[in-house]
Amino acid sequence: MRRYRILMITHEEPVPADLDALSTNPETQTEHHVHSTLTALGHRVRLMGIGDQLTDLRDAIREWKPHVIFNLMEQFAGIVSYDYYVVAFLELMRQRYTGCNPRGLMLSRDKVLAKQLLAWHRVPTPAFHAIPFGKRFREPRKLAFPLFVKSATEDASLGIAQASVVDDMQSLRERVEFIHEQVQSDAIVEEYIEGRELYVGVLGNTQLTTYPVWEMDFGALPKAAIATRRVKWDAKYQKKHGITTGPAENLSAAQTDALGRMAKRVYRALHMNGFARMDFRLRDDGSVFLLEANANPNLTRDEDFAESARSVGLSYEALLMRIVTLGLSYMPEWRMLEA
Fold it and tell me: Which pLDDT band, with edges at 50, 70 and 90, does 234 fall under?
């Protein structure tokens, strides 16, 4: 296997002076797992924290000449929707990188634009109403309660709690105001879809692979539970309520096939590449709705994406190398000019 110079980029705050400290910080498990795995495979790996400037990144590319950037950025300068600017910068530098391209990041991060585009492709998503930040609240006329309120741009469940599901107009108004004031973003009010929460991982640039359907089991939480920040990331909360994720059971072959095909349709419609995770809800009547299209999902060794790939024989080491290979082989416009 060829050994590469790999420059890992992540956020400035979690990068310690001693890289051994990555393993002891719950906030840096992804960085630890990716860095230690690629290093163990024999690659030369450097980890760089990015703040609100790209000067050091530019200098590192020019001086070290990495074969590929392993992109673990989820925001830039504290703004989630700016992460695609970093990738656009890499393309301007004619630098190969892992994960999604700028267009796919921009489309998938903008939930309103993504839903509008997917509607054109006839992908079922919950009916919605957008309320821009700074605009006064207007009652949505065509949506029936219960409704679900979330940020139009933030990810990782920021601003999502059980209170995000509302049953009356007063609660709706209060939750929209919360998103505007606390999250400082546009709000989306959408139809609440009750049902099973399912995830499908997608890997590839042009030839796509989907991995087995994974499911969020909400344990002892109420039937109408949603994947809040605590449900997704708080280990103590998960243990207390018996919240787990694992292979989805009791799905028919037709349902599994339909979820895989829909995941690929969404991936292509949003111009994604590299890898992604699609979040669905499956109603009791068998209807399926896309909730989110997540570019560059969490790559921690024991998280859903890696575990789903591992369930069909793709080890964590092989998964990371597949992602690296996809980054090296992706054909942005600058490479087409050189072909």
Answer: confident
Fold of 5-99: Rossmann fold (3.40.50)
Q: In this model, does residue 206 exceed pLDDT 90?
A: yes
The packing angle between helices 253-269 and 111-120, to 10°, is: 110
Burial 198-224 (b: 16+ CB within 10 A, else e): bbbbbbbbeebebbbbbbbebeebeee
Confidence of residue 191 (pLDDT cuts 50, 70, 90): very high
CB 55 within 8 A of CB 17: no
* More confident position, 280 or 234: 280
Q: Is the pLDDT of residue 335 over 70?
A: no
Q: How far is CA 250 from the centre of its chain?
A: 26
Instruction: Record the pTM.
Output: 0.94
Two tokens at 98? 């892992």
State which amino acid sits at residue 13. Answer: E
Residue 243 above 90 pLDDT?
no
Q: Which conformational region is residue 198 in: left (phi greater than 0), alpha (psi within -120 to 50 degrees), or beta?
A: beta
Phi/psi of residue 187, each to 5°? Answer: -115, 145
For the chain, give the longest Cα–Cα distance: 61
CB 181, CB 207: distance < 8 Å: no
Third-level CATH fold of 194-329: D-amino Acid Aminotransferase; Chain A, domain 1 (3.30.470)
